[in-house]
Amino acid sequence: MDSNLNNLKDYEFNFSEVIEYAKKHKVSIVGIQLPEGLRRMQNVLAERVKCELGCEVIISTEPCVGACDIADEEFLNLGADILLHFGHSKIPCLSKTSLPVFYIECRSNMDVENVVNDSLNKFVNGEKVGILTTVQHVHKVNEISNILSKGKLTPIVSKGDCRIAYPAQVLGCNFSTAREEIKNGADSFLFVGSGYFHPLGVAISTKRKVIVADPYSNEVKEIDGVNNEIVNKIMRQRFGAIAKAKDAKSFAILVGTKKGQSRLGCALELKRMIEKHSFQVFLYSVGRIEPEYLRYYNEDAIVSTLCPRVAIDDFSRFNKPILTPIELQILLEEKDWNEFAFDEII
Question: How far lies 322's CA from each of 138, 153, 233, 343, in Å?
């Protein structure tokens, strides 16, 4: 890491690669996009790019939830030559962008050894453990695997579908890596990272035990996909949303305009399903879901085909029930309650 970027000491990336990429494109205007967790670094990054390249730098103020949320159109309209996207890996099957995009993954320098060692007593000898993490820790997968092996466990590392860039990586909207690891023999999972959304989605999707080893807090916690306080709380929230929509006679289906969240095919399929049940339904295009955007919707319930986290994380902000596609299927009795899972973009 470049020692001059003191504010970036927690992350590992070669800033010279960023400059080299920009110079190849002979830039005069550079766009920068970051997730909320990296906002404190935006001025340092912008100043470095400006000094190295002698160009104008524009920082996007829009929230960014992942590489599915790429701001290429925004910066194309502003006349930018390239976009520097920080904090996420490229989604391999979303290769076409409106202008050149360089992905700076910002891998974490946090030590994982101690917290992974602390997690070993959550497993039994010989247990086959699928390793899962985010892009910030994918470079630690071999180290994690070796620790599990020394702890008399069998590490399982697999790669998911075309939205996944690295083995062991999971996204908040895609748990295909976990399913691949189950195919390869995993009995349970070790998730190395912070937060609950990723491991919670894995637990609910696979009905398997997930041990969370958080290198930032040095805490180890267990999420049981069948019987766990956190899982049960989320399930109650989601079943509450479904119950609230029980008397709905009209539905609004939201179709994402962002490349990585656009599921028109899914939306049309859901529209036909609703019409089959003789309810009124309209399609709406939207880039981001905010309560004020939905103020004038007359429909009784809303179905989102955008980022699955909106319905889960932000449900309390909306005065109408927001359902995911699978929750709509449960509501219309096209699926059973026991088939509930987090929505995924695959």
Answer: 33, 41, 17, 13
* Claim to verify: residue 206 and residue 154 sit in the same structural domain: yes
- What does the pLDDT read at residue 226? 64
* CATH code of the domain containing 150: 3.40.50.11850
Element (H, E) at 156: strand 154-156
- The range of the structural domain enclosing residue 73 comes to 6-108
CB atoms near residue 247 (< 10 Å): 8
DSSP 78: T
Cα–Cα nearest to 59, from 279, 51, 44: 44
Spatial separation of the C-alpha atoms in residues 179 and 186, rounded to whole Å = 9
Residue 317 and residue 155: Cα distance in Å, rounded? 41
Tokens found for residue 145: 């695997």
Q: How far is CA 30 from the centre of its chain?
A: 25
> Tens digit of pLDDT for each residue in 266-294?
999 999 999 999 999 999 999 888 888 78
DSSP one-letter string for 254-289: EEE-SGGG--HHHHHHHHHHHHHTT-EEEEEEESS-
Task: Establish if 232 belongs to a structural domain.
Answer: no
Q: What is the pLDDT of residue 289?
A: 86
CA distance 324 to 343: 6
Q: Which residue has the tokens 């190295």?
A: 52
- State which H helix or E strand residue 102 sits in: strand 101-104
Q: Which of 318, 289, 306, 290 is nearest to 344 (CA)?
A: 306
**pLDDT for 88 beyond 90:** yes
Query: Could you give the angle at the alpha carbon of 60 between the alpha carbons of 57 and 3, nearest 5°?
Result: 60
User: How far apart are the C-alpha atoms of 322 and 310, rounded to whole Å?
Assistant: 9
**Which of 108, 135, 162 is the endpoint of a domain?**
108
12 in the same domain as 85:
yes
| 346, part of any domain | no
For the stretch 240-268, pLDDT in tens is: 999 999 999 999 999 999 989 999 999 99
- Do residues 230 and 222 make contact, with C-beta atoms less than 8 angstroms apart? no
Type of residue numbered 125: N
